[in-house]
Amino acid sequence: MQVTLKIFRYNPETDKSFHYETYTLEAEETDRILDLLEKVKGYNDGTLSFRRSCAHGVCGSDAMRINGRNMLACKALVRDVGDKITVEPLLGLKVVKDLIVDMEPFFDNYKKILPYFINDSPLPADGKERLQSPEERARFDETTKCILCAACTTSCPSFWASDQYYGPAALVTAHRFIFDSRDEAAAERLHIIAETDGLARCHTAYNCTLACPREIHITKAIGELKLATITGKI
Amino acid sequence: MSLKRNVSLATGLRYKGQGPYLTFILHRIGGLGMGIFVAVHILASFVGGSVGGFLNAIYTNWAFQIFIFFCALFHAINGLRITISDLFPKLIEYQREAIWVEWAVFLPIFGIAVFVIVRSALGG
């Protein structure tokens, strides 16, 4: 089949503003959007810039807006998006070149919620593992799946309005550690996310959940955090 | 050099977020509509005279009444759904169904109100 691929282009060295370029390509229904971008870069225009790494939906490098919605280019198939495809960079982050955005504000927000395991207690008597029951592990299982692709955060209207908002990805990671029975910094993290730029800016638009390529129920996780900050119960 | 991060209203509205995003947008429009209504009401009482009369004519107009009823009713029902979701996060998994219920409650009430407003506007 023939597909029309319209790509957002911006070269900071030559362009004052962005423009779109359209390519007509032969493609299979089962081709991924990433395959089409590779084809354009390989055969039409070598200057086309985009991030990619594993190409299997695990590294989270190639999140972008495809036909107006955030997706991973390596997971979106031609048959799912149709034969007229528009590819644009993520919203709410500065565009560095073509489909590449500046991820610094995203990671700055991520760091604010202390995204690492904190436990200063001595190790158990055997000096090995801090044990956890299957039920305790299941409590935060879903939020361990985040790959930090930023598809959720950049689909959020609150983040579009202010990049000071921690964003869904940071809150998902906060959920992952707050509900981990082995972690000891839950109170500190709850205090951090209760700040003005934290949970209060989530207005349940639900875009994050629909954009997540890992199918994490982000709005639910944020809802659980909201309840935990109100009740103090984890 | 890089392009600024600003997301315009038009760009934001074009994001394909499906049903929940539509309710998010309508919720904001509802809030804004009620804000405008209250502002016009206060202004009309404050300035009085022919300007006040003109402002009164705006918010007593039947088309504006339909708009303001839409704003108030949708904002209320959607707000109730969000409050329930916040209090019972497990229910967020049934967001899609909750939005169908929301429309099922909203549309008949709004329909009856539109019927009554239009009928009285036509002098019935």
What can you see in these coordinates?
Chain A has a five-stranded mixed sheet with strand order 2-1-5-3-4, covered by helices on one side. Helices cover 31% and strands 15% of the residues of chain A. Chain A is of the alpha+beta class. The model of chain A has no long low-confidence stretch (mean pLDDT 95). Chain A has helices spanning 33-44, 78-81, 104-112, 134-138, 157-161, 168-178, 186-193, 207-211, 218-231, and strands at 2-9, 19-26, 63-66, 69-72, 84-88, 95-97, 100-101. Chain A folds into two domains: 2-101, Roll (Ubiquitin-like (UB roll)); 104-231, Fumarate Reductase Iron-sulfur Protein, Chain B, domain 2. Chain B has a single domain (20-121), classed as 3 helical TM bundles of succinate and fumarate reductases (Up-down Bundle). Chain B is mostly helical. Chain B has helices at residues 9-14, 18-47, 49-60, 62-87, 95-121. Helix content of chain B is 81%, strand content 0%. Chain B has five helices and no strands. The termini of chain B are far apart. The longest helix of chain B is centred in the N-terminal third of the chain and has 30 residues, at 18-47. The mean pLDDT of chain B is 92. The interface between A and B is medium-sized, with 36 and 26 residues.
